[in-house]
Predict the structure.
Amino acid sequence: MNWQDIKVSADNTHFLYNGKQIFGRQFIEVLKFHSPGLAPVKDESGSYHIDHSGNQLYADRFTRTFGFYCNRAAVVQTNKWFHLTDKGERAYSNSFSWTGNFQENLCTVRDGNNYFHIDLDGNKIYSDSFIYCGDFKDGYACVKTANGLYRHIDVKGKSLNDKAYLDLGIFHKNFATAMDKDGWFHIDKDGNEIYRHRFLTVEPFYNGFALVTQFDKNKIIIDEQGQKIISV
């Protein structure tokens, strides 16, 4: 049985294979299988992970468990957050106030009110802390700095460019969404606007075109020069 073909039931209480319930049981809650073929489940004993044969990965129980990313899964033990390896062992000894999921072998965590990124061994990858951090994508992450503005940083915690914005999105196909006092738009990796228009909301570009909402609430599609293509 290929774990990638195992589906979650509509009510999130059991798993399906070829449309039929498997493992001969229901849970309080299940989440989908992730590589290397492990899934978070919750029953009367607590939260834990199972393999694609329905066997528990370990005997421990947690307050909450999440899926595996980069062979690491976030778990909660009362109010302490940390990650497990795909062997069901703690990936590191320290704990955090919250953890995200690993992306590109790096993970956003919060310690008290401070956000930063850690590596697979739980080590902080740079000296700074931020008001907020997003996930890394293609080597860059969005962070909110002490002055309340957002910037892009690299894996060393260094700013990608000298630009800062009121809000910011991750890079997708070389462009990111950004907001200044006049509204939302798109920027390049130098932090420069790629057109002069501003919008109420913008989505990332999808194969050269993006859905945006104008200030009159009408939605349109624009090209990478910010020009209207069609109304939606």
Residues 104 and 136 are 7 Å apart (CA to CA).
